[in-house]
Amino acid sequence: MSLPLFIGKIIDTAKTPSEDDTEVKQEVSDPDNEKVKILGLPPYQFYTALGVLFVIGACANFGRLYLLRSVGERLVARLRSRMFSKILAQDAYFFDIGPTKTGMKTGDLISRIASDTQIISKSLSSNISDGMRAVISGFVGLSMMCFVSWKLTLCMSLMFPPLIVMSWFYGRKIKALSKLIQENIGAMTKVTEEKLNGVKTIQAFSQQSLMLHNYNTEIKKIFSSSMREAKLAGFFYSINGFIGNTSMIALLVIGTKLIGYGELSIGDLSSFMMYAVYTGSSVFGLGNFYTELMKGIGAAERIFEVAESNPRIPNQLGSKIDNLNGDIVFKDIQFRYPSRPDSVVFKNFNVTIKQGENVCFVGPSGSGKSTVSQLLLRFYDPDSGEITVGGHKISSLNLNHYRNQLGYVQQEPLLFSGSIKENVLFGKENASEEQITHALELSNSSHFIDKLPDGVETLIGSSNSTQLSGGQRQRVSLARTLIRDPKILILDEATAALDSISEEIVMKNLMTLNREYGTTIISIAHRLSTIRNSDRIIVFNNHGEIIEDGAFDDLYNDPDSAFNKLLQNHNLE
């Protein structure tokens, strides 16, 4: 901010040719004549000091930019990490309903982590710095302008009120628009993620045009919102530019008249005009700072929707019970999914599963079979009633510690990108090689893994060339669960993709765990080959009620049993 003053002083050292000739004659007649000085310094000292000042300024500018980038990157890294940690700690209610009351989808959460955090980082690092710089530059600029000419400063101050009012209104509008744009981007990311995950299905049904139309609809929403922001920004900056340009010309006209009156030198006017440009830029910078801050606040509101959403079912609270031995009891359970509050799943559900039993839940689709596993794993809490394991209410247990003692295998398991060994170790990080081998043998995975190019070190996942079949994925998933030596094993159609021979081997191994080690097995199945391996069959009707409970042989040999009717009506084989 000292540069305009120096430039003005340098300009004032300029002399006309006649003055130069007179000075030369004086120097010849009077060798002791002092040379021209700038701010009391000989020219060579002044320019040397000015060069040192510029070097210091360049170093300071480098430090400012580097530190700001460092602060911004650290901020966004920590914010993303904490956001991801917060999402992982959420329960099923968050994803079903969420703070938006419409559920939190993967694509929208990715948008918040990737895009919104970046906007907040920019607002709180470089934008804050630019705002502080604009304040300091404006204050120093006004002070120097008053020092040079208070009359011109008074004239220039007339432009500030309309600029401040316009910036305030523009900032409020831009905050709402910025949040709308980020929500549209989140919706587009959600659609993108969903469609790309189902690209084979889309191609199989030749629905590329329809999907492209749906995608373009989301793009048009973003385009429309962005164009509204562009019109608003164009209006704001064009008016600002008009006011600024008009003010500069007015100051120049008034300044030239002051020079004519002898109240101002040409150098002073040059300094003042440069300070006017700097100060005007600072005012515009403050307006931009305010609007960028409003964008950050709009993005922050979306971040805080997640950050301030506390799970109904906390992960780390509750007592830790190491030996959950005993019966599993569902007592007077009433439950409905939060995303379907009008649809009652269980009205008065009661069932007891003895320790070491091998139980299979069967029934038509939508009867509540899988809901039993969801409640037992405590993805949801019942609306009323209680669930106990070994006499302990699961609602009073530390959730992570409790789930570590359960094993859960889904019909369509998720395997992570990495080696087969890494996926198995996901179940128990510190497992030995013997435990890995044993788990793979129990799940009948060793046979096909030995044929793979790198055995258990073979890379799998969407980003690798080695793709496993549905049955192979189920077996690796089963090994990942069995390596934990769970006291309670929940199988939700866990062998549906296996061929009959593989299923027979797997079920035989599971029966060994059940009979020799007392592992309680809870199966949810539709295939008769899976059902017949269970000791006890619990039959549901369409209303989530238990209509039959007994041994497989007893129910199967009774032609009038509800179990046999279910087999006939649903062609279970």
TrEMBL record:
Keywords: ATP-binding, Membrane, Nucleotide-binding, Transmembrane, Transmembrane helix. The keyword Chaperone does not apply. Signal peptide: none annotated. Its main location: membrane. Residues 328-568 form the ABC transporter domain. One of its GO terms (molecular function) is ATP binding. It is a multi-pass membrane protein. One of its GO terms (cellular component) is mitochondrial inner membrane. Residues 1-295 form the ABC transmembrane type-1 domain. GO terms for biological process: oligopeptide export from mitochondrion. Gene3D superfamilies: ABC transporter type 1, transmembrane domain, P-loop containing nucleotide triphosphate hydrolases. CDD domains: ABC_6TM_ABCB10_like. It is found in: Membrane. The chain crosses the membrane at residues 46-68, 131-150, 235-260, 272-290. Belongs to the ABC transporter superfamily. ABCB family. Mitochondrial peptide exporter (TC 3.A.1.212) subfamily. This is ATP-binding cassette transporter family member. It comes from Spathaspora passalidarum (strain NRRL Y-27907 / 11-Y1).
